[in-house]
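Q: How would the structure tokens look for this protein?
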Amino acid sequence: MPWPVTFFPSGRTVHVDPGTTVLKAAVEADELFETPCGGHGTCGKCRVRLRAGQAPAAGSEARLSRAELDAGWRLACSTPVTGPLEVEIPDAALGTRMHAILTSGASVSMPHDPRPPGAFGVAFDLGTTTVAGTLFDLHTGRELATRAAMNRQIARGDDVISRIDAVRRDAQALNDLQRLATDTLNAILLDLCQSCQVSVSAIREMAVAGNTTMQHLLLGHDPSPLGEAPFTPAFTDAQTVSAAELGIRVHPDAMLTVFPQIGGFVGGDTVSGLLASQLDTLPYPALLVDVGTNGEIVLQHEGRLCAASTAAGPAFEGARIRQGMRAAEGAIDAVWREGNDLACHVIGDGPARGLCGSALVDAVAELLRLGAIDETGALCVPDGATRDVACRFQTVGGEASVTLAWDAAGEPAVRLTQQDIRELQLASGAIRAGIETLLRTAGVAARSLGALLLAGGFGNTLRIANAMRIGLLPHAEETAVRFIGNASLAGAKQALLAQTERVRAQSLRDRTEHIDLSCQPGFSDCFMEHMLFPSEQGVSA
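A: Here is the predicted structure in token form.
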């Protein structure tokens, strides 16, 4: 018979069949977890504490100590429900719910096709991690509100590969992932409409831009072919479908349009970013880079558009980092030098409990400047370090680490480990190798770039000098680097408001050449080269 599982601090209760994991029960209860490993029990970030009831510890022993197990701690992904449970979710495991979204960046004039009075529409950026939506009055073209929330699919993995793998391993996963996507859209729709006193039944149109995997999952297409060469998507043209048939609770006749896709992992969000950035109109060589889990790069040169994607992984979003987290209260979001020591800023100005992607880049850049990390990424105590600096460096469990923040008792609160640095090298090397390969393919030197456009939320938090110091971005004039905010959402807004923009999006897709990096000669060597950090002489920072 089903057993009750109650989650705290929310107090939500669900009834699940025996053997269901606590993680799956949490998904049913609408509890959002950070699960970078896709629920395979390897990251240890879905830790929960049993307040009442018993559950086997066997699946948690690899990541938790005996003392933690005895205190009731378990991994939600590998703990089956065998009876009634009360489960406490610590702050560090909880995902962010509805929040404001960064929309700063270059503004564009948006054409508008007026609809009848009383018609409303929503533009969505369907991200792997975060989903953002903007509500419009389609009669006037006026933007009313913007909201964002964590993509509920995160319960099945933090990156697209984890979700594709879930579909391959579990026959029910495709339906589950589609439902989680529509649940996320429905939650944002409800919040938007309530904030503006608009009925959800007044929503008549939606435009959605997402990467190839996200768009496949939303429409219920099997993404498995994207997981192996030649990475062929089920569709490349824009798709317009009934929103109601997808399970989206809006007007029964509302239509949802999904952006065209370029190929491989270069999806609708890239086309949408091209539409918003107007990259194709620039009179000089220019790059559009979305630094994220699935890093997309587009080069424009003499009217030619080339696009590629590179599997950077979720390190820039705090995943696969020992104490990594998203930009939430308690996260270190900036690190800098004060003399020969380090200082940091914590979101919320309270105690530090982790670090987000921007702080990871900052910390490694500053440690490189201090001589505490060499070109191979090895961490060591810098020559001539004072006692206060040297005490930051410790070996814990056989692994070198550096303390970035201390707790009130003077104990290390947040550490950066040697493995964390390796994860950054992999992510940074993948992005940079993609950039260099596209530049080489088009015969363009980095120094000749007239614009380097950084899109996405993470791009807006980067300190450019630090991104160049670790080799993530090629050395260029800082005046050429521009932050353009959430370009995917901006392009979706344009497509929502005007048919001419949807036509232009299709034209941009048709004009853009997809470059499969894995087939490019020298890409692997380029990747290996850029996993190494540049020398101080090789970069101006």
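Confidence is low (pLDDT under 50) at residues 96-108.

Residues 418-442 form the longest helix (25 residues).

Upvote if useful.
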